[in-house]
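INFO worker-7 received task bundle
INFO bundle size: 2
INFO processing item 0
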Amino acid sequence: MLEITRHKPAATRPKIVDTGRAAGPGARWWAFAQYLRHNWTLAFLALPGVVLVFLLRYLPMFGIAVAFQDYRLESGFLSPWVGLRNFRVLWGSPVLVRIVRNTLLLNAMFIVATTFFAVLVALALNEVRSRTIRGIYQWLMFLPFFMGWSVVALILFSLTDYEIGTLNMALKSLGLERIPIRNQAALWPWVLTTVRVWKDTGSGCIIYLAALMAVNPELYEAAAMDGADRLRRVWHISLPALIPTIITLTLIAIGNIFFADWGMIYALVGENALLYPTTDVIDTYILHALKSSVNFGIASATGLSQSVLSFVLVYGTNRLAKKYFDYGLF
């Protein structure tokens, strides 16, 4: 006998009894249907999100077939089937090692740097007792998040240009040699990381600050009574409280480690081929490939490879996180 009840007092809530139905998939679907019928308002609220996820995440999966076709616009999904040819072309590309290395290196630098500074800023703001001053700090740090990458590119150009850049003008005024920053590829992983930290630290620290708000204030009071100074309270109370959030957000970021921020890279680097050795990533490689020859099969094979590798990496790191930290996404 299957009984489903709503969350009401035991004396008033109605009982829905399933009679004559054997236990199994059919019974579970019947129970689910009854639950939706009695909680239709919750289902209605969730419907827009479910529809968006289906349209933006599941429906495009049918495009995976393009990776195995010699895709032509005129024939669409009826284009000739070529099997793994697109993957062999991709994996045999002479620049494959470079673009994969750059993608992983840049994303790893972004994850480590933004996480470190977001946690550091959150811990510092948590120690600020004045809500007014804390709000001003948050507003100032959050402001870069709303700037588009085109605006950031103009700011970066005004700082790093060889002739009129602020940094080089300052070096010239001090009698030092100007640095051709926009022509030195070795500097740009650090330049991009600095820009990413400047832009995302303010927004990233909000999540960590919210996690710190959930810490019981009595823990800090007890530690203070035991003689712990502010630094020790941060180290032994605040930081351990952030570990689950740090692990969760890091695992989510690792899920996109094979996907570079195309808007950022293209806006800041553009078509400067001198910087390609350290800034040409998988996504910009797809763009360059499509501009030189329209090959949707190669682009789709690249995207599918990124997704599969990201899934494997997330699954592996999640297993490690559960093994050594007892936290994980799933």
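INFO item 0 finished
INFO processing item 1
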Amino acid sequence: MTEKIASRGMVVFNLGTAKFALYTDQVRSIEEMQEMVPVPQSPSYVTGLINLRGEIIAVLDLRKRLKVEDAQDTRDLVTIVVEHGGEAVGLIVDRVIGVEEYQSEPKPIPQDLVQTRAGGFYQSVLEIAGERIIILNLDKILTVEEAK
């Protein structure tokens, strides 16, 4: 009898040159960029508020949140709208690569990285065809305090 590995869908995207992912059950939609209303006195990674089909949602710049260098070409910027704690939140990313089903088992983040200030933002790593895709910890990313 062969053991079946369950597949799980992921939205894979770029921040700079790195590939990241969120599970599809966390993602509500992928939206084009739209004009935002700034939120004074908010953390630097909070870009603003948008009206998405009658719902006002906060939008975070995931590059700033994870301290990833800006991409040179920003034509493909999109907002991934996630569902967290009953609320919608937008995450700006450089480019969505696609929605994929993976049957590989994600590997844990190395302890050395987990113990760093940003290590809590990362949940696990998926290795596919020699490429590494970092699966993000949405709970930590959407907290106001640092990830540790």
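INFO item 1 finished
INFO post-check item 1: The CA atoms of residues 2 and 103 lie 14 Å apart.
INFO post-check item 1: The domain at 8-141 is CATH 2.40.50.180 (OB fold (Dihydrolipoamide Acetyltransferase, E2P)).
INFO worker-7 idle
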